[in-house]
Amino acid sequence: MLAPAVALLLGGLVAGCSGGTDPAPGSNPPPAGRSSTAVVARTPVSAALATSGAPVVALSAGDPAELSVRISGAVFRSAPAVVVASADDQAGVQAGAEQASRLGVPLLLLPAGGEPLPAAFAAEVSRLAPRTVLAVGATGDRLGSLHGVEVVTDPTKLPAITPPAGGSPMTVLTRAASKKEIPSATVTALTTTVAAATGHQPVALTNRDPRADPKAIAALAQQKPQRVVAVGDFGSTKRLAARVAVAKTGVQLPGGGQLLLPGKRFVALYGHPDTSALGVLGEQGVKASVARAEKMAKRYDPLSKMPVVPTFEIIATTLQGSPGPDGDYSFDTPIKTLKPWVEQARKSGVYVVLDLQPGRADFLSQAKRYEELLKLPNVGLALDPEWRLSPNQRPLVQIGGVDAAEINRVSDWLAGLTAKNQLPQKLLVLHQFQLSMIRNEKKLDTRHDELQLLIHMDGQGSPDLKEGTWRAVVAAAPQGMPFGWKNFYDEDKPMLTPKQTMAKRPVPDMISYQ
Fold this sequence. Notes:
This protein is α/β, with parallel strands linked by helices and 514 residues long.
């Protein structure tokens, strides 16, 4: 038996939309509660898609019937027909999906068993205001109590219906179902009907983050949807919306995708473009540096399960022995000097990290001076606490340090800049070879979705000495932190080979050469 409230709701629905076309002026509408093929629309009609609402809608449910209603509500504004199948009849679900796809109308699923029609199902039918319901499989008997709505089991008995014309600014995201979620075949059936109505194939992901999938990024960039309906477990809707906005730009990082770690390994040349005294990056011009970085990265290809990305770590601000005009003991390299290196790196698929040696300045004020470059997708940031001096400290007299609170102010600003400009994830490198260099280290904020923090062990010396420093740095870091390792051509006695470097545990995600 139909629940009384549901019957009343459907009765009201039928009185308002039985038949197919509105009665002509002066004509008599058919009596409420009576269906008649004589009033079925003679001209083709189409479903209307929902064009307003939140730009990203995330739908996850453990019940197929509930999910079908939610998908219909997010995608369709109205429909001339609705296809209904039983969730426990997989063959019926597939057949229903074929019919709904052919017509460009919703597919609604009924719960397993002979339970009364759910109120949510009845409400959705009422909202869609269909002329006809096509029952697939054994659902016809359960729909027989839909007073005034024509229920048919033969698709040829449907009125003339065509899918919505033209493409729609709407895309469906799907992801592989876990054991606790709806079977993937059912999700595929439901989303296939949406694809037919919108004209866009669903974008399938392997995890929650579309930024991790180069193919998904390319598809979203091509479709440029105004609305995205995500079906499956995607976590926070707010976070998913921000990730989708970045993916839609289509901009990808060197090595592919819009995420940094895990999934990539960075092999970097360190130094300043104007001098070889500060590292190998200054030993040759920009094009020769690109070739050298690529050659070094290739040495790691056979040793890495992840793509190896050639990288420049460019010293942007350099510690000075004199205070300078601003009294901070740090020289700011002009942007016009760095820009050709950054632009050539971008053209060549090289990632760039701008390194700050702030002296008595704070990291945030220096980082903001390079905002123009940090707005580029292939540019990250490195903080070198060794050269972060207190107001009473002098260069090369003692080793500097910084509190986690100051680093967190930088990460807050950099994450905001990245989000505002819808950029791929940015690398924020923290150099460390003494624990005092990062005070209150456990308070580092690692939650920004726009950033990937990495602690880079850049001590020098014998392999045994560096191994001890490595173990100390790794042990002090927040849980889950990735790490980097630096090899020195002159100071390390002897310098580790790529194979020896990759034998470190945890395996370094960034390896620099100075």
